[in-house]
Amino acid sequence: MLKINNYDSLILRNISFELQNKNLIILGSNGAGKTTLAKVLCGIIPSLNVFIEEKNPSGIYGDERAKLINYIPPKLEVYDDFMSVEEFLEINKLYSYKSIDEVLRLVNCEYIKNKKCKNLSSGESQLLLLSSAILHNAKYTIFDEPTSNLDPQKIKNSFHILQDEDILQNKIIITHNLNLAYKLGFDILFIKDGRIAFNDSSEQFFSDANLQLFFSDSVKKHDDNIVVNL
Q1: Strand 225-228 and strand 219-222: pairing?
Q2: CA–CA separation, 21 vs 219, rounded Å?
Q3: Is pLDDT above 90 for 42?
Q4: Is 151 a residue whose pLDDT tops 90?
Q5: What's the domain count of the chain?
Q6: For residues 6 and 140, is the Cβ–Cβ distance under 8 A?
Q7: Which end of the chain is least crowded, N or C, by CB within 10 Å?
Q8: How many Å apart are CA 212 and CA 217, to the nearest integer?
Q9: Furthest-apart CA pair in the chain: how many Å?
């Protein structure tokens, strides 16, 4: 179980929820506090209010922490200019039985294996982060905008990976892609002005009434998809 209880900061207010072997989508406008929440949950921002399997991630280190939770940032940052994709993935291969070659085939980017990380495009970097998460295979993986900078075909392939219960364990996904969130069907946590404004099923969140409440006239359902109402 992942649990946060009454967390307060300058950005977040009275944040409390529990996850028991479930996936979750975190939604909210720019600046609502989504990434801050992700960093609190994984212990990057220390807090005594968070527990994963009854352990506080801020107080454990090394293998013990790595087995519990992994945070995948929205942008790849590699400080070694000479590090290759294969070397980066070797570092991240922890608890998955899959090989690096298997994972690169899964994300449909085998061709980047021998590239230098610094030479990847923004989309290729995003797929490298997804690959690293699969190879890490923590109990909980938090993705911060996992489909940003991806073309439609790669978004679709990433969707199927994120949807597959056999590839990763428990997933927490921060995204602005409402159609991705809708199609995944995971429970929704919506943050507004640093507070939880909604925490329930996808079906309830994507009702016409809630779409109007949270997004006004900016989005709509069309042919069983959530689209921007331009």
Answers
A1: antiparallel
A2: 31
A3: yes
A4: yes
A5: 1
A6: no
A7: C
A8: 6
A9: 52
Whether the model pTM is above 0.70: yes
pLDDT tier at 223, thresholds 50, 70, 90: very high
With 90 as the cut, is the pLDDT of residue 26 above it? yes
CA distance 65 to 91: 16
How is residue 164 written in tokens? 């597959």
Q: 14 by DSSP, 3-state: which?
A: coil
Distance from C-alpha of 93 to C-alpha of 125, rounded to nearest angstrom:
17
3-state secondary structure of 130: helix
Q: Could you tell me the two tokens for 218?
A: 């900016």
Spell out a b/e string for 148-167, using b for 16 or more CB atoms within 10 Å of the CB, else e. ebbeeebbebbbebbeeeeb
Rounded to 5, what percent of the chain is helix, strand, coil?
35, 25, 40
Domain span holding position 67: 2-228
Are the C-beta atoms of 175 and 27 separated by less than 8 Å? yes
Per-residue pLDDT reduced to its tens digit, 64-113: 999 999 999 999 999 898 999 999 999 999 999 999 999 999 999 999 99
